[in-house]
Amino acid sequence: MKEMEEVKLSVSSVDLLSSQASQNRKEHHTDLFHGDELIIRRGQTFQIQVELDRPFNANTDKLHLELKTGGLPLVSKGTHVIIPMVDHLEDERWEAKIVEQTDNKIKLSINSPASAIVGLYGLSVITSSLKGDNPTTYNSPKHIVMLFNPWCEEDTVFLDDEDERKEYVLNDTGRIYYGTEKQIGARTWNFGQKSDMPPSGRGDPVNVVRVLSAMINAQDDHGVLVGNWSGDYSDGVSPAAWSSSVEIVRKYHSSYGTPVCYGQCWVFSGSPQQCCVVLAFLLAPLDYLNKDSVWNFHVWNDCWMARPDLPPGNGGWQAVDSTPQETSQGTFRCGPASVNAIRSGQVYLKHDTPFVFAEVNSDKIYWQRNLDGTFSQIFSEKKAVGHFISTKAVGSDEREDITHLYKYQEGSEEERIAVETASRYGSKPDVYSSPSAEDVSVEVKMEGEGPRMGADAQLSILVKNMSSEPRQTTLHSQVAVMYYTGVLKGTIKKEQMSVELQPNEEKTIEWVLPYQQYQNQLVDQAALMLTLSGRVNETQQVLANQTTFRLRTPDLTISPLGDAVVGKEMAAKITFTNPLPRTLKDVVFRVEGLGLQKGHVVIVGDVGGLATVTLTEHFIPTQPGPRKLVASLDCKQLTQVHGVADINVLDQ
Fold first, then answer.
1. Rounded Cα–Cα distance for residues 578 and 608 (Å)
2. Which family does it belong to (predicted)?
């Protein structure tokens, strides 16, 4: 019994390697945060050091880690994480590996998935022997703070621009705009997201911003700020006096959750951290018909994230408004609403898109009371609200006008189509006249397997007139590069085309995107989205179509050479032809075949434009039966290139 007790392994201490100057904090872009907590970002490895009461022996000892967050941690919810020890770390999973061992100390490298729950975690180290003895648990007195990771491509908040990451994630101060559309004022605001304040929110980005939008205002849930537009602030602080989120949150925290008095829209927008502050002039909040008003200005936030809960193309910037104006599902909050959905009038997409659309797009309707007490619409002012939508420019204190992100150019046909589309899903779908007929259709067709990488992308737009009368329309098209998460990177081509149709005529329009226009714009999966919109002149029917397509990459051709027999050397020839008229830099092949060959990397180097490269792999099969030799190519200019060969291995 005594010998067993001496053999038993236990933890003496855990060093989270969490100082501001530590490698962890620098690699995770958290070294500017105050304090010495371990603040890390998900989807990235970090290291800790464990001191034991004796040296660790992999032949006799077992060790694993556990992380817990929230009031009721559950493995099924991802709030209780069990981290196993492995020999090799792999992406997108919780794992730990011993990377250094000195006497009684071991250094662990820990990997987290990009989907990990964000929040405050408690850490436990569990040790036991391989014989199955009762485990010993050590609970670390220090916590781990897990944040979203805009630097990680697999994270739904990935932001593919270092200057924007510096501005929207790392920058502690910003600018908030106010005034009127002809007299725009600006003030500096201290967001203080790196100050020593408790972390809040956990889960996926959509749920987090929904919670934060509700938490900031105190309207119905004892949130941070009390709204006051009365002009009497004698029992609190005037909204205009605040200039820092830090002061507000500290006051709220030190008073054990007593809402802080007072805030107005620019204060509510300054309180959410790591968001883009947005301002628009002449805003129209929705209210009862006899209480409609147009605000001089309003301030809210934009947050960047993918929206897997919405159709592709609606990721990216999302509008979030903490000012308590109306409830959303019973709570005073607003958003996230896709800015792309707002722009196109797709108000049926969640969350609270109709409200934000109305704020920046409402027409001002003039009514006249008739002698019999009824009302008649006498004038509609089309450009009344949503002017000079602004935010601080990236890398400077200048004002950047982002109205084009929220709405098409005032008075353009695209803008009118968006407004009318939104109105059809509103409480008054007949405000705009309905089309007299809907007898024209538009669809996009793709030939074969679709456009090929390195060549001009060609699609066919089929427009059909199903009536016995002539029809004429102008189709507006724009194509944007899209991440696989559904986030649009940016528009790379816009054009319009006039289409005249005879009765019952079908017309095919060949749409072309030249290689030169997309060659430097593509990302990861080489996906694009083509959006078409238009209106039929004779009937006022609205035409709309969105088509997602990708540029096909070539396959690697793998040809087995010689007989496939266990224990006998054979070979396979791997051939690749560069589809681009430009040189591929630092090309690497990865080759693996279970029962054929261990996975390894082959450095190819540069491959010239339209050039063909061939390499021969030699290997000795170790297992009989049907096997697959798999290869993939990796380089910065071209991804998603792979190939496979089926090899039937005979026994000796």
1. 7
2. Belongs to the transglutaminase superfamily. Transglutaminase family.
Q: Is 247 annotated as a binding residue?
A: no
288: pLDDT confidence band, cut at 50, 70 and 90?
very low
Taking CA 575 as the corner, what is the angle to CA 607 and CA 549, rounded to the nearest 5 degrees?
A: 80
Q: How far apart are CA 327 and CA 248, in angstroms?
A: 24
C-alpha dist (Å) from residue 70 to 66, 79, 121, 224, 342: 14, 7, 8, 21, 34
30: pLDDT confidence band, cut at 50, 70 and 90? very high
Contact 101, 55 (CB under 8 A): yes
Q: Which positions are catalytic?
A: 265, 298, 321
pLDDT tens digits for 121-140? 999 999 998 887 789 999 99
Task: At 166, list the tokens.
Answer: 């510096």
Neighbouring-strand partners of residue 299: 279
Q: What is the DSSP string of 292-317?
A: ---EEEEEEEEEEE--TTS-TT--EE
Distances (CA, A) of 82 to 73, 74, 78, 112, 126: 11, 11, 10, 11, 10
pLDDT at 385 (0 to 100)? 83
What residue spans of 302-431 are helical by DSSP H?
339-344, 353-361, 403-406, 413-424
Query: What is the CB neighbour count within 10 angstroms for residue 267?
Result: 28
**Do 488 and 482 form a contact (C-beta atoms < 8 A)?**
yes
Instruction: Tell me if 363 is assigned to a ligand binding site.
Output: yes
Determine if the peptide bond prior to 262 is cis (ω within 30°).
yes
Does the annotation flag 410 for ligand binding?
yes
The token pair that represents 198 in the structure block? 């408790």
pLDDT in the model for residue 1: 44
Tell me the H-state helices in 229-361: 245-254, 265-270, 339-344, 353-361
Say if residue 490 is exposed, middle or buried (CB neighbours under 10 Å; 0-12, 13-18, 19+).
exposed
What is the tens place of the pLDDT at every residue in 372-426?
888 887 667 677 788 899 999 999 989 999 999 999 998 888 988 898 888 888 7
* Cα dist from 652 to 510, 594, 621, 623, 625, whole Å: 58, 18, 11, 10, 12
**Most confidently modeled range among 85-94, 105-114, 177-186, 584-593:** 105-114
Q: Report the DSSP beta bridge partners of residue 108.
A: 48, 98
pTM of the model: 0.76
d(CA 315, CA 309): 9
Spatial separation of the C-alpha atoms in residues 351 and 333, rounded to whole Å: 10
Q: Is the pLDDT of residue 2 over 70?
A: no
